[in-house]
Amino acid sequence: xxxxxxxxxxRARVLSSIVVTLVLFGVAVLGxxxxxxxxxxxxxxPLFLTARHQIPGHQFQPVPLGEMVADTLxxxxxxxxxxxxSHSNRxxxxxxxxxxxxxxxxxxxxxxxxxxxxxxxxRTIRMGEPSQVFLSLAGRRIPFQCRVLRHPELxxxxxxxxxxxxxxxxxxxxxxxxxxxxxxxxxxxxxxQEVGRTFTTRWASIRRLVxxxxxxxxxxxxIRFSIPLHTGWEPALVELEHFAELWLDPRAxxxxxxxxxx
Length: 262
Description:
Structural class: alpha+beta
Shape: globular
Number of helices: 6
Number of strands: 12
Strand content: 25-35%
Helix content: 25-40%
Radius of gyration: 25 Å
Order of helices and strands: HEEHEEHHEEEEEHEHEE
Distance between the termini: 76 Å
């Protein structure tokens, strides 16, 4: 039988292990709490955009989304349809808002044209356009994702811009340019590129959720608008920028020019 002199060191080691474990657990809990607090603090200058429902010189044609779409998006604050100018030029628009506690962060990033439009037969094509566009509104550079998509039953492709924000902080994750997936240029290599890009996009989404773990309590907004691409992408983006100044109200007097980045 072991003597009490031999048992004492064992008890000391056990107590020491318990204390160390509790300290490490406490540091982990406190560290996680502090990290979340620093990562989820409100932005210094939150900015939301108001989508005008009427624009001088334009006629608006609403396009109902239906109850199923509204239920999926988990909000009734939806604005969807087409603006036509005096020359019958069309701009298709979509804007959605989620009040605090309504919906979740995935609603913003799970219904982009790359996802929803692809489900309706559209395919991304590359025409040299940037994958991200910065529009200057109220002196703030707002990042918009930029894509050109083509539908086999439509005569012209569509160039679209979209942006999303949480608590007034506009998402600035840069998604790389998609491969060309039209029927003429698509190869096994391009589809493998799309798989790799999908993985990168999912990883970016996970990183976004980690950085903003309490998105359910955040006010959210998603904006998307597009036009038929009858010309090159440069004049099309100029046209979309001009329309954004007419349609989106940042409730601030300053306006500016856009800058593009690939």
